[in-house]
Amino acid sequence: MNYYNEIRNEIINNEINRKVKNYSINKSDLNAYYNVGKILSEAGKHYGEGIIKEYSQKLKNELGKNYSVRLLYRILKYYNFIKASKLPTLSAKL
């Protein structure tokens, strides 16, 4: 029995699982940020930019986490960036 290989394999499997888990968490975060940004964009069209401040305060009060105005603006900016990057290229129009 080669103990080193068993230890090495366990460590490698653990690293792989961590990376897959981290990727999954990151993907989930990015999907959530995109969806939140989309909703903020729609809400802003109907209620103005002040709605972000209101939502920030409500989220802080209800969830107890720091959903600052700055964070919500960054999420909105992320959504707008992704949305803009999905525009067709000039070659696709030709």
Annotate the secondary structure layout.
Elements: H1 3-47, H2 50-63, H3 69-85, H4 90-93
Question: What does this entry look like structurally?
Answer:
This protein has helices spanning 3-47, 50-63, 69-85, 90-93. By secondary structure, it is an all-alpha fold. It has one domain (3-93). The longest helix is centred in the N-terminal third of the chain and has 45 residues, at 3-47. The protein is elongated, with a radius of gyration of 21 Å. The model has no long low-confidence stretch (mean pLDDT 85).
How many strand segments?
0
Secondary-structure element string: HHHH
Percentage of residues in strands: under 5%
Secondary structure tally, helices: 4
Short synopsis of the structure:
The protein has 94 residues and is mainly alpha-helical. Helices cover 85% and strands 0% of the residues.
Features:
about 90 residues; mainly alpha
